[in-house]
Amino acid sequence: MRELTKIGDSIKTKGSDKMNNTIHIKGTVRLIGRDKYGNLQFDRTYDNLITNAGFDFICNVIGLASQPTEITHMALGSGAVGNATATTLTTETERETATYAHTPGTKTCTFTANFTTVSAATEYGLLTAASEGTLLNTAGFAAITVDALEVVATLTLS
């Protein structure tokens, strides 16, 4: 899991000799766990890894005339987290609709989903469909068992 604790993916572009732009994409996932009474049990944030398929997706959003299907779902699993070549979670156990949010003028967007009765979740990912679909990113964490889990995934461009 060590490779998932550091993320510094970037895309470099060069124009003239006087111009050199770098676009960085950083992702984090925030896990907010509550008991059956709604009491906060934990609030943790982890860096996550944008997959190779995720970078292809981002490039297609920027460049294709016909846009790919948007990110609509978030999944949890109980397996070992994958690496950059992952196209699915290792052992997906639950998938929920994710709510997208972005404030114009900021360089971040979020996806939020709520899960109930989470048992031994150790991995997460954002996807483009209710089943199968493109895996944008993934992260791993110590096993979580909780009555209610709110997951907020944030992508930051800089």
How would you sum up this structure, described in words?
The chain is mainly beta and 158 residues long. The chain has one domain (2-157). The protein has one helix and eight strands; from the N terminus they run E-E-E-H-E-E-E-E-E. It has one helix at 52-63; strands at 9-14, 20-34, 40-50, 73-77, 92-97, 99-101, 108-127, 135-157. Strands 1, 2, 3, 4, 5, 6, 7 and 8 form an eight-stranded antiparallel sheet that branches. Strand 6 and strand 7 (108-127) form a beta hairpin.
Summarize the structure.
With 158 residues, the protein is mainly beta. It is 8% helix and 56% strand.
List keywords for this structure.
8-stranded antiparallel β-sheet; disordered N terminus
The count of strands amounts to: 8
Number of spatially distinct domains: 1
Q: Largest sheet, described in full?
A: 8 strands, antiparallel
Helix tally? 1
Strand-pairing-aware structural class: mainly beta
The secondary-structure element order is: EEEHEEEEE
Beta fraction of the residues? Answer: over 45%
N-C termini distance: 25 Å
Shape: globular
**Unreliable parts:** 1-15
Mean pLDDT: 87
Which bin fits the share of residues in helices?
Answer: under 10%
How many whole angstroms does the radius of gyration measure? 16 Å
